Amino acid sequence: MILQRTLKQAISATGVGLHSGERVKLTLLPAAVNSGIVFRRTDLPEPVSIKADPALINDTRLSSTLVSDAGVRVGTIEHLMSAFAGFGIDNLIVEVTSAEMPIMDGSAAAFLYLLQSAGVQEQTAKKQFIRIKQSIVLEEGDVWVKLEPHNGFKVTLSIDFKHPAFSHGPQLSTVDFAKHSYTDEISRARTFGFMHEVEYMRSHGLGRGGNLNNAIVIDDEYVLNPEGLRFPDEFVRHKILDAIGDLYVIGHPLIAAFSGHKSGHAMNNKLLRKLLATPDAWEYVSFTDELDVPSSFHRLPELV
After folding, report:
1. What residue ranges of the chain have pLDDT lower than 50?
2. What are phi and psi for residue 29, nearest 5 degrees?
3. Which of 68, 134, 154, 206 has an alpha carbon within 20 to 30 A of 179's alpha carbon?
4. Exposure letters 156-169 (e unless 16+ CB within 10 A, then b)
5. Which residues have C-beta within 8 Å of that of residue 297, sequence separation ≥ 6?
6. Residue 99: C-alpha distances to residues 25, 64, 223, 282 (Å)
7. CA–CA separation, 208 and 91 (whole Å)
8. Rg (Cα) of the chain, in Å, rounded?
């Protein structure tokens, strides 16, 4: 039987918010079955909890931000959500002392380390998947995203940057999780940005915590990070990391093929909303026999 997962114990880390520049403490705590991923702002006079939900992603400027009905924000959740998806975590409380997650090194690797260190606990309820039955497509100009039926989980993304730094590696990548490991192939890919965007971002209250330790920074020609790229196609791999996190806001692993061109947080979220508004296009499924589970989900990290 494929069961839901949470953590064995609480674990904490501190870091800096990418956009706010504020120091923030993050604590991950075990949660009950069927509770999903719940973010809790503990820096407020009265702690406020916000459950990850596509309908609450109401700010997608350079990140995915949950905004409660009362206007309480929890931002830059996509890397953390991506790590939860990669580790098969269903239920968790995420306590945070700021309006933004810590950026760590700009990838999901530090979050995976936290999950591994805390240990994963199987729970008593079956894991629920969302299986795509009909294709859902969203197009805006030359930008598009799509979910299609597929007996597993596969992501294909392409980007199109007319810039010398992007000419040295592929701008299209496919990761089939029946064959590839999230930990090895995706988790270490870092976020990136351009020097010419910094002044604009900071004038809009964004990017204040960004530096060469937590992002790939690109000038008019080159990658400025002295260590260079972790993968030749690190840029598109990071877009895949983001997309996995954006999609996991739906609260369940998807049995589907996701693909897109020049997509970002806004389009990924709009696709989820369109999916949920098309009930004939998907269904909940659980598995009693492990042999029935698509092989993409056999590669989840082992319980520790």
Report:
1. 304
2. -125, 145
3. 134
4. bbbbeeeeebbeee
5. 2, 88, 129, 152, 153, 177, 253
6. 11, 12, 30, 33
7. 31
8. 18
CA–CA distance, 78 with 14 (Å, rounded to integer):
17
Residues in the chain: 304
Q: Is the dihedral of CA 218, 220, 221, 226 positive or negative?
A: negative
pLDDT at 170: 75
The catalytic position among 19, 79, 261, 265 is 265
Alpha helices in the chain (DSSP H): 78-87, 109-118, 182-185, 195-203, 234-248, 265-276
The per-residue pLDDT for 25 is: 98
Q: Is 298 a catalytic residue?
A: no
Comparing CA positions, the residue from 162, 159, 169, 298 lying closest to residue 241 is 159
Q: Is 124 exposed, middle or buried (0-12, 13-18, 19+ CB in 10 A)?
A: exposed
Using the 8-state DSSP alphabet, how is residue 189 labeled? P
Is the dihedral angle over the CA atoms 89, 106, 63, 67 positive or is it negative? positive
In angstroms, the CA 287 to CA 144 distance is 32
Give domain 3-126's CATH number out of 3.40.366.10, 3.30.460.10, 3.40.630.190, 3.30.230.20. 3.30.230.20
Are residues 287 and 1 in contact, defined by beta-carbon separation less than 8 angstroms?
yes
Q: Which fold has domain 129-299?
A: lpxc deacetylase, domain 1 (3.30.1700)
Query: What pTM did the predictor assign?
Result: 0.95
For the chain, the structural domain boundaries read 3-126, 129-299
Cβ 136 vs Cβ 146: under 8 Å: yes
pLDDT digits (tens, 9 = 90+) for 157-212: 999 888 777 777 778 999 999 999 999 999 999 999 888 776 667 676 666 777 88
